[in-house]
Write a structure and sequence with these properties.
Elements: H1 2-18, E1 44-54, H2 58-66, E2 72-73, E3 77-78, E4 89-90, E5 94-101, E6 104-111, E7 140-154, E8 159-162, E9 167-168, E10 176-178, E11 181-183, H3 199-212, H4 215-220, E12 221-222, E13 224-228, E14 240-245, H5 252-255, H6 278-282, E15 299-305, E16 309-313, E17 319-324, E18 331-332, E19 335-338, E20 365-373, E21 376-384, E22 390-391, E23 396-397, E24 400-408
Antiparallel strand pairs: 1-7, 2-5, 3-4, 5-6, 6-7, 7-8, 8-19, 9-18, 10-11, 12-19, 13-14, 15-16, 16-17, 20-21, 21-24, 22-23
Length: 409
């Protein structure tokens, strides 16, 4: 019997010592059962990271203030005060800086003037929701990069939707009115509501995509063709061309698809309710203030509605015809399709940080495997201590802390 025990433990040790460098394939004298993981519509995964929680701990803020930073401009738009004169232009009144303190990543945000809630408006508190959310000029605010939580809409297709409103952006930065229609510019050749040429499509697939995901995660996001037709049948002339993107907004049809867990009509629906992160509020997100919907906000859909509107989901979960595309206070709820949902927590920076006011903790990870040797079969529970780890469908990179085995002969 002792010889049998030694052989089994030796086999398990071989697995443990190899896990940090080799895929989970067949080792001599040991066969591991594959780890099954099934997802259902409505389940949540974590994938990518983005600034979300506001840092409020004064000791930590002092440490962040002292950290070196390289500031960059958001290049946010503002205008003359007119809705659609086409004079909107980017400027340098709001900046950010990404940096690390230890293993935690932060984003610093500051602005010298308020960001207007419509790109054509001037920069003042009268035309901004930043002050309503507790953010004022000439201060520096810090936000912690945290794992993005995604709701699975279709586990077979890999379609996921961010659970939170991660940012606040205009659908289209420039709007010009002529010939009874709204256009993206004075050339009058593209409607302001054209998703294929929109500012928000570019923002999703450049600014957000490059910020939120590692190279390994980008490789797991599929490029997918999307239809962008007018949601209300106002005429084919308002249809936008089909797009093929990694990151996108849901269409109105998708946001009212019962197969995704939403109510099939445009009525209020709790499955469509969404709240914004602290970071989104610092960008100027509008937030409903009272009653059962307190804290909820409206969010953009990609479907056009006439030349000057894009569809949206209101604070009460009603999918509706949307708002003027120049509004900057609409929430961004990103969507994408993953090739492999099981990579949900792979290579996410700062994955286990608990709060913006404290340090992250890395909980142990236990894996139960079944094994077969020439002496018999049994099970083993191997516990790892992951201090920064990456995990995909075949390879685990962990630091081994301890293991225990239980077997039958």
């Amino acid at each position: 019997m002792r010889k049998h025990v030694i052989r089994v433990i030796s086999a398990l040790l071989a697995v443990c010592l190899t896990l940090t460098a080799a895929p989970l394939t067949v080792f001599p004298g040991l066969e591991l059962a594959p780890r099954a993981q099934a997802y259902s519509m409505g389940d949540h995964i974590q994938f990518g990271t983005y600034p979300q929680s506001r840092v409020t701990d004064e000791t930590l803020i002092a440490q962040l203030n002292a950290a070196p930073k390289t500031w960059k401009s958001y290049n946010y738009y503002s205008g003359t005060g007119d809705w659609n004169d086409g004079q909107m232009a980017p400027s340098d009144y709001m900046r950010f800086a990404d940096f690390f303190v230890g293993s935690a990543k932060y984003r610093a945000v500051t602005f010298s003037e308020y960001r207007p809630y419509f790109t054509g408006y001037t920069r003042s508190a009268s035309y901004s929701y930043q002050d309503n959310n507790g953010y004022t000029p000439n201060n520096v605010y810090y936000f912690l990069y945290e794992p993005i939580s995604w709701r699975i809409l279709d586990p077979v297709d890999g379609l996921i939707l961010s659970e939170m409103l991660l940012d606040s952006q205009a659908y289209q930065n420039t709007v010009y009115y002529a010939n009874s229609e709204d256009w993206q510019n004075t050339s009058c050749n593209t409607y302001a509501s054209d998703y294929a040429a929109s500012s928000i499509r570019s923002w999703l697939n450049y600014d957000f995509y490059e910020t939120a995901f590692t190279d390994a995660q980008k490789a797991n996001i599929r490029s997918d063709v999307a239809l962008n037709n007018d949601a209300y049948g106002s005429g084919a002339k308002y249809n936008s061309a089909s797009t093929k993107d990694k990151i996108f907004l849901l269409s109105k049809a998708e946001a009212t698809n019962s197969a995704y867990g939403f109510a099939s009509g445009s009525t209020g629906n709790t499955a469509r309710l969404a709240k914004g992160t602290y970071y989104a509020k610092a960008q100027g997100l509008w937030v409903y203030g009272s009653g059962s919907y307190a804290g909820c906000s409206w969010w953009w859909l990609r479907s056009p509605n006439l030349s000057n509107h894009a569809c949206g989901v209101d604070f009460d979960g009603i999918a509706y015809g949307g708002d003027d595309v120049g509004y900057t206070y609409g929430g961004v709820r990103a969507a994408c399709r993953l090739s492999n949902l099981k990579s949900d927590i792979s290579q996410s920076q700062n994955l286990f940080s608990e709060t913006a006011g404290g340090s992250g903790t890395d909980p142990a990870v236990s894996e139960t495997v079944t094994f077969t040797t020439d002496e018999g079969t049994g099970e083993a529970e191997i516990t790892f201590d992951p201090v920064w780890f990456a995990m995909d469908s075949e390879q685990y990179q962990h630091g081994l802390a301890r293991f225990c085995s239980q077997f039958s002969m």
